[in-house]
Design a protein that fits this description.
The protein has 104 residues and is α+β, with helices and mostly antiparallel strands. The protein has four helices and four strands; from the N terminus they run E-H-H-E-E-H-E-H. Strands 2-3-1-4 form a four-stranded antiparallel sheet, covered by helices on one side. The longest helix has 19 residues.
Length: 104
């Protein structure tokens, strides 16, 4: 699960076009670094979710690091910091009753 940090601040201070550009940049980075390993979705607004299959934790963390580096480069083109808050866990059929339980 991912959420773009400070999107309201970007929208309020830099306008709708910059907000849209921030969403596009984050979406593109997610697609570049996580989509090859599963399915990624925009849930709405500034929220995204990815379901990743068979990616070792070390490789996952490397992709997250590359994504953050890519977004950091975008910062040089704008007056604001572009970053994503990320939460993740591993779904285990033995620990979770269903996907809703897991997401909570």
């Amino acid at each position: 699960m991912m959420d773009i940090n400070n999107l309201k601040h970007i929208n309020d201070n830099y306008g709708h076009k910059e907000r849209d550009d921030a969403i596009i940049a984050c979406s593109s980075s997610i697609k570049n670094h996580l989509k090859p390993y599963g399915d990624c979705f925009r849930l709405g607004g500034d929220e995204f979710a990815c379901v990743i299959f068979d990616l070792e934790e070390e490789d996952y963390l490397e992709q997250i690091n590359r994504m953050r580096q890519e977004l950091s480069v975008a910062k040089q083109e704008h007056d604001y910091n572009l970053d994503i808050a990320i939460g993740s866990d591993v779904y285990d059929n033995n620990k979770h009753n269903d996907i809703g339980d897991f997401l909570h």
